[in-house]
Design brief:
Largest interface: A-B, 66 and 40 residues
Distance between the termini of chain A: 46 Å
Strand order of the largest sheet of chain B: 1-2
Number of domains of chain A: 2
CATH topology of the largest domain in chain A: Rossmann fold
Order of helices and strands of chain B: EHHHHHHHHHHHHHHE
Strand order of the largest sheet of chain A: 6-7-8-3-9-10
Helix content of chain B: 55-70%
Number of helices of chain A: 18
CATH superfamily of the largest domain in chain A: P-loop containing nucleotide triphosphate hydrolases
Mean pLDDT of chain A: 82
Strand content of chain A: 15-25%
Oligomer: heterodimer
Mean pLDDT of chain B: 85
Structural class of chain A: alpha/beta
């Protein structure tokens, strides 16, 4: 108990920012939080005023989520302290945080699927009497929903709700418990553009009532659209605090990265089917159906008549809200899951139901969404991970793999102690580079991959690594590879793909050239509204502005 | 001041050695308490134990004689366990191997020259082990049935089958001339593994060392071994890379069973020279689990650990002959059990370390009740 006070005293209110009106609702002064090997937060100061939206902006690993966890009581700071309405507080748990009006909405929902909305809202609420008064609860849930633009049916079971609706339940849950300060951790990651816009309306309704919102994001466009103030973090430190009205997306990006941003790789006109129509598509799905369960009897239909062709030299992007069949489509195309009906061809070879090895043999490369654990084996060395998808005889050829890995480390600037280091020590960006190096090797050469499936290629990567990955995919396309990108991040798909396919409930809801599709069309298709039916579209898009939401990178 | 368990950022080679050594030391300490309670001097007992097993030529070779089958049962457990396939039925596979090996020694032994006869015994014992592991492997690979249950239950089937063949029936394996007490029929002389002079250990030791090296090479250099490593550490990655999990699980469990059976063949050819339930029911298969765990599934470490545990077993018998106070033979078994418990417990310290956390760091540092349940930033990342 020696230096606790000094650290508090050293943390004067931020000098870079003239204090605007409003009482400080929640603040962190000089907080440091260490995990083994990492300083996640390093003497961070943060102030949130009543009635404002204060965004925490930063790349993955910058320390945003750790700071949010400290502010809501999930973690306790090693050094420094938290203040609530000017009073130093020690929050030992999220429940203590909530008792002081601080509520966090996590990126991953914490709802019980079989319970109703109202039941989930009061689940674990210490203020509830032993016998629940259901009608009262349901009335209050409905009232909160109405007040803040969060329409939910209190009696609906969570299992019947969409992702966007589930998020509303999470927000209602903290509001019900009387939260005056809300922390939203990457809330738009799972939403369609229209749903995101509706969320922003809710956020404005909350701040209008004097509530304060911490909004965590790495998407510059929406940050500019929703924030009053922005605190930018990098490497666990605060690198800047600015008023949203007085800054630009570009300035924020430079604060995030710590250097001027180079022009990103633009989608140019690549080989674009330069092989002509004579050459078969690099990757082709014809009438692919997938029904849940063994033998396809009676289960849920996960994929329903998917037709898809990716030509050599073309990048096709598959967009959609999470859980609409993207994961299953990737598994079927890669030969991991056999479809219930339909054919899958890789460079003209029919590989339907013949397994992942056959698909790879026909020239398919696959970079799954989960890099460590699915794409790479965490416990094995980088050399052995290189060997994983290589053709192997009776003996393994480690020498060749080691040489290949050593070359890749140099070429892709992979940060690792060496070729024999276990894959588990790699950061997300470096793991992705190792995977791409392995999967793209020999592209364009005889026997090299002809088609590449990449799931969420830049998710979780810092801007530098993301640029490199974009460059690699661009190059793969230039060299005649058929590239299929599957991602829930619409911005990512739009910036990479020549052509787009939107999945909704296992069907292709929309297909077209990326340049010709408007964001609104895509959003409606993601929400399951047929784009050729304008009347129905407008109805379902209630809450969505007609103009394009400000999403740009 | 509080203790906190943290993940190690770096694992150094000596962590892997320190953990099992620490486990042995801890087990000896616990054993000392029991000995003291029983009125024995722990120091005397441990000294005698060491003297009996590791100082004289006869002591060492007797220890190695017990170590010989332990190497193979240890390997049997190790190849399966490192794939997270818990074949705990090497005991049963050993009996099945002994039945097969003894049959070959009786039926083929008299007609073959010595090296071939021995090879026939060992090959037949491998077949016996394979047969016994086959149901375990098939049900695991295709239906996901717990191999722990099936392999353990089959152990009892093998045990009672072996007893039936000798005690319960006039089978081919039973010695028709043994009138007083039922015994196994002695295999042909040519089918016996030769011994080193008058010592109780012999060529079986050479065989098991070769097998250990072969298993190591298989894991390290062959595609089959590579696939087994991948499936063991990350089944999901194996599936995505197109490695057939069914094939690799079958392979792993069958290899494990074959090694278990081989242990039976080595016992029959090297020591028992007959299907002898009394001489074979030593728990060698179960002890193999201790060997594998203490060796952290490393084939070369298994050689050392088997020698050590063989000595412990050997000393258990030797301790009975101590003048004056008769130390129960169970002491060595108790130590063996304690070693397994501590070895499993010590595993966590290879990956983790204990750290003293001072509670004076900051206002909230003392309030933290546990390690972070879900570290937000990936720990152990090379920046």
């Amino acid at each position: 108990m020696s230096d606790g006070d000094t650290s508090g005293a050293s943390a004067a209110p931020s000098a870079s920012m003239p204090a605007p009106g409003g009482v400080v609702a929640l603040a962190a002064y000089g907080v440091t939080k260490r995990f083994p090997g990492v300083v996640a937060n390093d003497e961070v100061d943060f102030e949130l005023r009543e009635g404002e939206v204060h965004t925490l902006l930063g790349e993955n690993g910058a320390g945003k989520s750790t700071l949010a966890a400290l502010l809501c009581g999930l973690y306790q700071p090693d050094v420094g302290h938290i203040e609530r309405s000017g009073q130093p507080v020690r929050l030992r748990s999220p429940r203590e945080g909530l008792a002081r009006g601080i509520g966090m909405v996590h990126q991953h929902f914490r709802l019980v699927e079989r319970f109703t909305v109202a039941e989930n809202v009061v689940l674990g609420d210490p203020a509830q009497p032993a016998l629940l008064r259901r009608a009262d609860i349901e009335a209050r849930v409905a009232e909160i929903g109405e007040r803040f633009g969060l329409p939910v049916d209190p009696r609906a079971r969570i299992s019947s709700l969409t992702v966007g609706q589930r998020q509303r339940v999470e927000i209602v849950k903290v509001l019900y418990r009387g939260a005056e300060v809300l922390l939203l951790d990457e809330p738009t990651a799972v939403l369609t553009p229209q749903e995101a816009e509706a969320l922003f309306t809710t956020v404005r309704a909350m701040t209008a009532e004097g509530k304060a919102v911490v909004f965590i994001s790495h998407k510059l466009g929406e940050v500019m659209a929703v924030s009053d103030r922005v605190t930018v973090m990098r490497g666990g430190r605060v690198t800047g605090e600015v008023a949203a009205a007085a800054t630009s997306a570009r300035e924020l990006a430079e604060l995030m990265v710590g250097r001027p941003i180079e022009a990103e790789v633009r989608r140019g006109s690549g080989a674009g089917g330069g092989g002509g129509d004579v050459e078969p598509p690099g990757l082709e799905a014809v009438g692919v159906r997938l029904v849940e369960g063994r033998g396809g009897a009676g289960g849920q239909t996960l994929l329903d008549g998917i037709d898809l062709a990716v030509r050599p030299g073309e990048v096709v992007g598959v967009a959609g809200v999470a859980g609409n069949g993207q994961r299953e489509l990737a598994a079927v195309l890669a030969g991991i899951t056999a479809p219930s009906a339909g054919r899958v061809r890789v460079a003209g070879t029919d590989v339907t139901g013949r397994g992942a090895r056959a698909a790879r043999g026909a020239g398919l490369a696959f970079v799954p969404e989960d890099r460590l654990g699915t794409g790479l084996v965490p416990g094995l060395s980088l050399t052995d991970n290189m060997l994983l998808t290589r053709r192997r005889g009776f003996l393994v050829n480690r020498r060749a793999a080691r040489r290949e890995m050593a070359t890749a480390i140099q070429e892709f600037e992979i940060k690792t102690p060496g070729t024999e280091a276990a894959a588990r020590v790699l950061s997300g960006g470096n793991a992705q580079k190792v995977l791409l190096a392995r999967e793209l090797a020999g592209l364009g050469a005889d026997g090299g991959p002809r088609a590449i499936i990449v799931a969420s290629p830049t998710r979780g990567l810092d801007i530098g690594a993301a640029e490199m990955v974009r460059g690699l995919l661009h190059e793969a396309r230039q060299r005649g590879g058929a590239v299929l990108i599957i991602s829930e991040d619409l911005d990512e798909v739009r910036s990479l793909a020549d052509r787009m396919v939107v999945l909704y409930r296992g069907r292709v809801a929309l297909e077209g050239s990326t340049d010709e599709l408007t964001l609104e069309e895509i959003g409606l298709a993601m929400a399951g509204v047929a784009s050729d039916d304008d009347g129905a579209g407008a109805e379902a898009a209630a809450g969505a502005d007609s103009g394009e939401p400000a999403v740009s990178t | 001041m509080r203790l906190r368990l943290e993940r190690r950022l770096e694992q150094r080679w000596w962590h892997a050695v320190a953990a099992p050594v620490g486990a042995v030391v801890a087990a000896l300490v616990v054993g000392a308490v029991f000995l003291a309670v029983e009125g024995f001097s722990p120091f005397t007992v441990y000294r005698e134990l060491f003297k009996a097993s590791f100082t004289s030529a006869f002591g060492i070779t007797d220890s190695l004689a017990i170590a010989t089958p332990l190497v193979v049962t240890g390997l049997a457990a190790a190849v399966a366990f490192r794939m997270n396939l818990f074949n705990i039925g090497a005991e049963g596979q050993l009996y099945a191997g002994a039945i097969g090996g003894a049959w070959a020694g009786l039926a083929l032994g008299p007609h073959l020259p010595a090296p071939l006869a021995v090879a026939a015994v060992l090959a037949a014992s491998v077949v016996g082990g394979l047969v016994w592991a086959l149901p375990v492997a098939v049900f695991k690979a295709w239906f996901g049935t717990s191999e722990i249950i099936t392999s353990l239950m089959l152990t009892f089937v093998a045990l009672y089958l072996m007893r039936y063949l000798i005690f319960g029936s006039r089978s081919y394996w039973r010695d028709p001339e043994a009138t007083n007490f039922p015994q196994g029929r002695k295999i042909a002389d040519a089918a016996e593994l030769p011994q080193f002079g008058s010592y109780r250990t012999g060529w079986g030791l050479v065989v098991v060392v070769v097998v250990a090296v072969a298993v190591w090479a298989l894991i390290r250099y062959t595609s089959a071994g590579f696939d087994m490593n991948v499936v063991g550490t990350s089944p999901e990655a194996a599936r995505y890379a197109g490695i057939s999990t069914v094939r690799v699980v079958l392979m792993g469990l069958l290899l494990s069973g074959a090694l278990g059976g081989l242990a039976g063949g080595i016992e029959v050819a090297g020591r028992a020279h007959a299907l002898d339930p009394n001489g074979l029911e030593l728990g060698l298969g179960f002890t193999g689990i201790v060997v594998a765990a203490l060796a952290r599934y490393n084939p070369f470490a298994i050689l050392l650990v088997a020698a050590f545990l063989g000595g412990l077993r050997n000393a258990g018998v030797a301790l009975q002959t101590l003048p004056g106070d008769r130390v129960p033979v169970e002491v060595s078994l108790m130590l063996q059990g304690a070693i397994l418990l501590f070895a499993i417990g010590a595993e966590i310290f290879v990956r983790h370390r204990l750290r003293l956390v001072r509670s004076g760091l900051g206002p909230a540092a003392g309030a933290q009740s546990s390690t972070p349940a879900e570290p937000v930033e990936q720990a152990g990342v090379v920046a």
